[in-house]
Write a sequence for this structure.
């Protein structure tokens, strides 16, 4: 192990752990180890986290709607739609985790209740069981609603060079725009 001046010394695992512990403790006297300092003001981080919370609510609502349609779809397109919806809700289930964890990395709690999502989401719930074609139309509307929500956050993330958020938004928009196109193609 090389320490500071380049003098090479041998330490066992316990000694290295102790050195790191002492270093961390001495640092914590000068600055709070839990303070977030990403180079983005708290006000801007909060605005982005609020936008991402709306994106999370939209994504979760669309996830639930897509899973619901997977269970309840009927008719001659059953097999195609049942499997297509499964692919879509599986992708959405993974996406909510990425969005929620970006909110956490910005220093804010991620919403995770139906009451919070119903307030934040721009996608209305579907409570009846629509016909297969109506399900496709409702999912196109939902996919495009998520795209619009994601796009609305861009000015805030771009303003403060929050590239991780902008990258996440770009990825989400690509997925939702492509899925909307695939769904729409079924109706043409
Ligand atoms: Fe299933």
């Amino acid at each position: 192990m090389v320490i500071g001046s380049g003098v090479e010394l041998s330490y066992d695992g316990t000694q290295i752990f102790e050195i790191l512990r002492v270093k961390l403790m001495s640092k914590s006297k000068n600055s709070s180890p839990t303070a977030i300092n990403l180079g983005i003001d708290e006000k801007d981080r909060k605005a982005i986290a609020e936008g991402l919370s709306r994106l999370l609510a939209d994504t979760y609502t669309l996830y639930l709607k897509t899973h619901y349609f997977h269970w309840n779809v009927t008719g001659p397109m059953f097999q195609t739609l049942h499997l297509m919806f499964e692919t879509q809700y599986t992708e959405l289930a993974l996406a909510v985790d990425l969005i929620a964890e970006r909110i956490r990395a910005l220093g804010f709690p991620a919403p995770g209740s139906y009451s919070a999502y119903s307030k934040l989401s721009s996608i209305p719930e579907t409570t009846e069981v629509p016909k297969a074609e109506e399900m496709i139309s409702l999912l196109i509307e939902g996919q495009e609603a998520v795209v619009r929500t994601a796009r609305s956050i861009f000015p805030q993330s771009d303003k403060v060079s929050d590239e991780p958020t902008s990258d996440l938004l770009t990825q989400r928009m690509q997925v939702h725009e492509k899925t909307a196109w695939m769904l729409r193609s079924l109706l043409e």
